[in-house]
Amino acid sequence: MDPITLLAFVPAALALNLTPGADMMFCLGQGLRSGPGPAIAASGGIAMGGCVHALAAGLGLSAVVSTMPGAFDLIRWVGVAYLLWVAWQSLRAGPARGSVQGVSARRAFAQGFIVNLTNPKVILFVLAFVPQFVDPAGAVLPQFLIFGVVLSVGGFIINGLVGIFAGGIGRKLTGDARFATWLGRISAGIFVALAARLALMQRG
Questions:
Q1: DSSP annotation of 130
Q2: I need a labelling partner for 6 at 20 to 30 A (CA). Which of 14, 54, 61, 132 fits?
Q3: pTM (two decimals)
Q4: What are the angstrom distances between the C-alpha of 104 and each of 41, 55, 81, 169?
Q5: Residues 152-200: pLDDT tens digits?
Q6: Angstrom distance (rounded) from CA 76 to CA 22
Q7: Close Cβ partners of 115 (under 8 Å, ≥ 6 residues apart)
Q8: Are the C-beta atoms of 43 and 160 separated by less than 8 Å?
Q9: Which H or E run includes 13?
């Protein structure tokens, strides 16, 4: 890989990581719901999902999915259903001993991974953005993986910081059971909004 190309990719990837999106909002919701630890774990799951997307794109699987409306919509609606389930879990948990009943770090990691993996918009994004930096004369798959790791590491750091910030706010407010209940509702609302965004998403 040309080092100049990699150096050009890093600031472009960082700018994309800093743009608020579904992954960032999911980590925000996890931070409010469960605290900094699970929010960081969720960010790790999202980063791992990003690496899987890069691998799939490098192997050509993402291109196949993007040309099949049925597969694209199936992935999208699975993502919608899962986000609604996470929202329901957040509402059902409610306050426990003056704090929000959150999820474990392992579960938050799995949720972040599934949410990222079932977002077909990420498939289209990887196919549209990463190939601009790939040299077709070289080994394509390793280039996709390197660029995918760069994107994922940047996203992990930024989304994790957002989750830590939200978790700090959540901890300050959960001393009161009423606030804890509202935090559960707010995080559930974030997950429902993400589900609605995914449901209304267009392929174009």
A1: G
A2: 61
A3: 0.78
A4: 9, 28, 21, 18
A5: 999 999 999 999 998 887 666 655 566 666 666 777 787 788 788 778 8
A6: 13
A7: 22, 23, 26, 45, 46, 49, 79, 82, 83, 86, 194
A8: yes
A9: helix 3-18
**Per-residue pLDDT tens digits for 91-103:** 776 544 344 456 8
The tokens of 104 are what? 């474990």
The DSSP secondary structure of 40-95, one letter per residue, reads HHHHHHHHHHHHHHHHHHHHTHHHHHHT-HHHHHHHHHHHHHHHHHHHHHHHHH-E
**Can you list the positions of beta strands (E) in 65-180?**
95-96, 99-100
Give yes or no for a contact between 27 and 42, defined as CB atoms under 8 angstroms apart.
yes
Rounded mean pLDDT of 88-115? 73
Bridge partners of residue 99, in order along the sequence: 96
DSSP structural state of residue 21: -
204 confidence band (pLDDT: 50, 70, 90): low
Token couple for 185: 């509702």
